[in-house]
User: Fold these one by one.
Assistant:
Number 1:
Amino acid sequence: MSVPEQSKKRDYSHYDRMSTAELEQILRLDFQTSDGQASDPDAIFYIAGLLANRNGPFEPDAAWERFQTQYRPCADGRSLYDWDDSGGAPAAEQTPPGSVRPRHGRQLAVLAVVLAALLLGGMAAWPSGADIPGQFAQWADETFRFVSADAGAASSSSTDEKALRRLRSQLRELGMEDRFPISYLEGFHPGKLNVSTLNDRVSADVTFSGAYRSYTVWIDHFIQPTDNTGTFEKDDTPVEAYEHNDQTFYILSNEDTLTATTYNGEFMVTVAGALTREELKTVLNAIPSPNFAQYRVQIQADLAQVGQSLYFPQIPEGFFPYSCSYFVIPPNFDADWSESYIRGEEYLTFGLTIYHGSPWAHYSKDDGPVEEYVYQGITHYIFGNEGTATAVWMVEDTEYYMWVTDATVDIKQLLRSIYASE
Amino acid sequence: MGNSIPDEGPITTLYQEMYGRMIAYASSVLGDRSLAEEAVQDTFCIFCVKAETTLRHENPQGWLMRTLQNVMRNMQRHRAAASRLIMQSLQTERLEELLVYDEEDVELLYGDLAAHADFQLLKRVVLDGCTMLEAAQERGITVEACKKRIQRLRAHLKRKLSDP
């Protein structure tokens, strides 16, 4: 049977120009989204065919022979890996969608569209990688505070701040920055980054030292998925599964040491030390979402389909990536993507929506004027919302948006930096 | 031998058409070509058993890709759960006591040896990343027997480890 008729109407040839690694990443992302429904199935089919041509030949005749002689004889309608005693074909994993990340007035618009789509029946939006404002606000009020960039800070704090920036720069070169906590516990000081290159992984660790205690953050980047990530010694305290920013951390106890670890098949992040459980969770709460790279690849692919590229502002110094989101919203399958950065208690968000129908977003504003800032032939609408500066503009059918709470950040300069990167 | 397929021709054609794509997809996700092939073969097994409906599906290619995803999720989920079970068993002080089957099965003349052998089999598949076919061939058994032995041991360990 030939490729489904609908795929003939859309041109997927832009995928031909992507590398094999990028295409495989798109397939992995498709698999990781809930039930894989967030992606374009025809595009996935095309990409799989492209990879089959590149990586083949696969000798289907020999595979068919193995199928007939080794696998088919024991076929009973259940997966080989369905090891439960209950019967039935493998059901789709019911991964609950991530919580929606509301953002100013746009938050209600996104939520309304999602709910409307669900009520229409037969379709679902698959948001992922999101936080709700309440969680952010609670986190900001927690006992530990971010390291401040204030000029009047004590010299030790200033030294630690430089050390942290240096650490992040080193981690960025290793591709690990977005796995590392963006801040550390009050009363502790960061040490140097230790990096080891092993046969199966690159390992980096930093120890934070306090008066009589310390804790260490390890990041292991595995070359290939493995089941041999090591064994942790533990006492008989039950293991706790702690969810944060799309990751599940397993918290283990071993006498006076607590360890939290998570592994996604490529990266393993571990935090361990003489901490209280609350302190350990505070450290975990500072670890950004791991989905930055994946979502960027996805939105770049979406933009390529409409003949556009992803341009990005120059993020001001001191802002660290914290969370990101990617939505595909029916019925038109509009793609919405955004990244949020944080510096102290200020945040900056940059995002876009690719519309395949009429624009639907709306933004909250105060009673101040809307300024039309024309730059590079594009009109950018700038307005305020109780201390937050927002900029919105259209490029063909793509709506871009940016907002920043930090009054010291010049939003026009941020806008200009986007075009400087083109 | 096995289940009769009412429409051998269309099945074969679909297999030839989809095998490469499904291998490419599964390899991207699993990062292992052998496991990818096993997931694809497993998917076609399910397709064949349900051939009366799947061949009449409006989009059998889409059905295969979706089922492949579900098979891989099953694979990852059950392997991860079994890995935890193995770790739990190894960390207990009564491992030797655990590896003795209780049931009076006339086919199991040496219950303890059978449980030990099944434990090695489970470790081979779950910890060494072996496919069920590879593990079965190493032991001169069928894939079906491999699956049954894993199921038996798994149920036994879960029951034993949940006892106080």
Note: Residues 1-8, 86-105, 107-155 of chain A have pLDDT under 50 and may be disordered.
Number 2:
Amino acid sequence: MKFDTPAADNPIDRLRIVGRPADRIEGPLKTTGTAAYAYERHDVVRNQAYGYVLGSAIAKGRILAMDASRAKAAPGVLAVVTAENAGPLSKGASNTAKLLGGPEIQHYHQAVAVVVAESFEQARAAAALIKVSYEAAPGAFDLAAAKASAVNPGMIFGSPADTAVGDFAGAFAAAPVQLDETYSTPDQGHAMMEPHATIAAWNGEELTLWTSNQMIDWSRREIATTLGLAKEKVRLSSPFVGGGFGGKLFPRADAICAALGARAAGRPVKVALTRPLMFNNTTHRPATIQRIRIGATREGKITAIGHESWSGDLPGGHADGAVDQTRALYAGANRMTATRLAALDLPESNAMRAPGEATGMMALEVAMDEMAEKLGLDPVEFRIRNDTQVDPEKPERRFSQRQLVECLRLGAERFGWRARNPKPASVRDGGWLIGLGVAAAYRGAPVQKSAARVRLDGEGVCTVETDMTDIGTGSYTIIAQTAAEMMGLPLHKVVVRLGDSTFPASAGSGGQWGAASSTAGVYAACVKLREAAARKVGFDPAQAEFADGYVRLGNQSVALAQAAGPDGLAAEDAMEYGDLATTYRLSTFGAHFVEVAVDAATAEIRVRRMLAVCAAGRILNPKSARSQVIGAMTMGVGAALMEELAVDKRVGFFANHDLAGYEVPVHADIPHQEVIFLDEVDPLSSPMKAKGVGELGICGVAAAIANAVYNAVGVRVRDYPVTLDKLLAGMPETV
Amino acid sequence: MRAFSYERATSPTRAAAAAAKTKGAKFIAGGTNLLDLMKLEIETPSHLIDVCGLGFDKIEQTPDGGLRIGALVRNTDLAADPRVRRDYGVLSRALVAGASGQLRNKATTAGNLLQRTRCPYFYDTNQSCNKRRPGSGCAALGGFSRQLAVIGASEACIATHPSDMAVAMRALDATVETVQADGKARRIPIADFHKLPGETPHLETALEAGELITAVTLPRPLGGVHAYHKVRDRASYAFALVSVAAVVQPDGTGRVALGGVAPKPWRVEAAEARMPQGAKAVTAELLAGAKPTPENAFKLPLAERTLGAVLAASRVQAARA
Amino acid sequence: MSRVSFTVNGEPRTLELDTRTTLLDALREHLRLTGTKKGCDHGQCGACTVVVGGRRINSCLTLAVMHEGDRITTIEGLGRPEALHPMQAAFVKHDGYQCGYCTPGQICSAVAVLEEIKAGVPSHASADITAAPQVTTDELRERMSGNICRCGAYSNIIEAIAEVAGGGS
């Protein structure tokens, strides 16, 4: 099915099941420990051996020699696989560094060997017996130092690295009120709770991987490329994924090492990356340096806005798209953005929740706060004055929906924004200094082709199969709701099977497109199934109605179970997209409001209240969508206040590479969180009229917190994370 | 983790003797730090002596009015003991500020004292570390040092001691009781228990080969206002950037020990004479000669400000009482 | 190799194990009770939380052989999909999870936390260290802080626990 005209009324609009806050259908499995994640699938294949990955001890250079003789002779060891004996290995286009390194080393903790043994304990002990001698080469590990040599990377996620409209330089120079500041954001880790893990088994030249992966079809292709197999010979299965956030978009060393280990050992092998290895072995969100210039009239109308960003990656890698939102978020006739990429020898950088906007909004929305202060304007009002209903780069292109102003206004009212004292460091509560902060939220709303297969059986049960993944996003439930709504069935009559490459290829979980795209694919398949069911009972498909387990035409009705009959009915289709997304700009909007308390003595920062107001199309399930947003807000608290992969610029690695060193928020950091969804449907997005919220929720949160800290203590921190050491010097004197 | 043999100890003297004569032997109780380090082969014992069955799990009154805390008393139980909460609040507070509920349920009093540093270079066996491999150098010097020591460190090691409990015990002048390999008992004042690194950062405590901690005793209660203020980025489940253990008397005198700043709980008795003059005066002497790195220099003003807050709060509390 | 016997969810079990085997790996790999999760294997996340002798611990930082005779309760021992424990049901109702990987640890911890408060164990959030702790959201947040949820379901988890506790302020 092709979606190339705005969605008309359709069965989803009945909203009997879609749009309701249904509990997750897989909830009883997850809460009882009976949902099996990759490493736990004892049942799928017998005789599983254990693999343990050894990471490189240097960041860049070569392996001179490797002696695995003691490891091979160690108790229980079945095989030791290194680049030397692994056979030919390619690199998929999605990976920048090789997943099994050697002799060339591209980054710290790059996998250099996998040891396979009868037990985990034996494999781990034997891995430590491998002696590797390295020749380290000098590398570039410091983004600030490499900034001058950064280059124009061409395109970033389909956007040009440089954009320009009007005369930015002239307008900025002429602006009566100007801001020119530089911000930095650090490297951040996904730190999903389930480590990357895979069980691999060969059947001749056919490979099955029970793995933890967000994008089944992409990863199937990448694994086939890496191992030199035909894509059809590779099967992936990921019914449950213990978090990804972009860190499991592509195969990682666990998958390749399990496959290679299984081939060498001649039996199935399971591999999980250890937590201390994950931070340097896998991908991370790259650090950025961002310069923002804003020029405005004294009345607060932006006349010039410029955003430049520098980030680094391994040679051949990608730039962070931090400037992306600045092309569209605020009005202003004269604009420019520029993105530069430095070659660094740190581990591979890649997507992490809302790549681009997450970092870009951390800077832009602080700049907006600073500019509002310069103008003597309330920061909510300043944003409202610079709203635009058209793409500021292409005024003929409208936003499909844009309720940024409504989000800001409603949020301000609900949060009690009026109580904010604009003068910093002026509100106290005992030993705490109190501050309020605001930021806009913005994230694109892409949709991707997505397919599904639906079957109706003689019991009236509808089974949906798609390789879509549920990484905590609620896919199982919203897909079930979609099928139930389309087929007129109760939710418990729908079975959803996900994450298997034998199912039709979906959009996968990434880029905030998963919910809208995967349900649209299910919609398309259900349209076909409705036609088949109607035809089978002799009804005109265009007139037939599906409700309460029946297909009806006028006063005739047939139970779906009966319509399906003993042989059942099946249909498969994909939703594909025309050019509506280029004719219109499809985006999601929101506003974040935060109250912080800063200890007047120690400058410890604690978040007291958080509110997000989101306008993101139809909300398919308010309960799971709310969870997406609070989860993103929580990750935003981490980005604002604690998360930083500490680069050792001499050795070239992230030094704090475990969950004690890389702090992410804990329960005590997070207050009760409020989320409000504006009533919105977006018929230009898909027949579901939905967009995404999972990434919108993180965009702007950190800036709202940084702005609240400024309001609390009067210290403007432009280098994230905002930690107490950066506040101390500017704190008011203690009593 | 290297293979090891395992035995359950049946008596403290036999355990100490066995540990002394078996090369590579270690005691294990809670295991929350030792197993963590064994998985990374930072610790590689060839033999583990499980001391959990030795019965050192009681908290008893001593004849002089103090408390004797068994070496195996779990952190949770020590923090929850009504006598500790009433008379040694600084200790209860320090305990509940440390780790997580799960870890405190397992971690023991002796094991807490023996915790090893959280220096990231100690934790990564690819990096040089004089604590882990004497003579290999200290990768932390010139490296990522935000968490590391500002005082008491050396050119060989700038690691901090991670314990909260030990900081409170230092303020309380606790004594560590042990049994030695020859079966003799020994009492080590906590001030002497942890060593500064000097040129031998791998030697962390006064314990000798095979020596087993049996108890920690606390002197008679000091009275006064007890406080343990732990400063960290994350609100819980994080090691201290700086912590202040203090006992403040109504007249403004008292005791102060710092955590997070040094290779051992940091207390300078002479500095305490300045307590009535306020935090600035105390920390000037307490942290005199500090050699911070640019990354952790903030700990100096932070310690002063934290102590200031503790003293202010104790004045308020004393006035209320 | 060492032999160890303990009861898991009421069932006596005897295992012959590599002495290095943690309680966590004994449960997951040998007894195939995979509800208990390995998130970090170093006591830094809480996903492996189980209840031993009535107390919650990190099963990754304890050797299985050190649990001779112990009574161990895992998430599988609390309830089943068709017969949920009230805490499990509350997590479903309040959407106190997303990816689900930290969830068994959160639930085991939550059940034990309410017992700890009942038993009078103080926490960092207790304003008066000598007083009996109360079920407040601050107390719950502090006590649950050893269970990391990277999906960020914290706000909902606290609501679920507070409901089971019968209120909370």
Note: The longest helix of chain A spans residues 514-536.
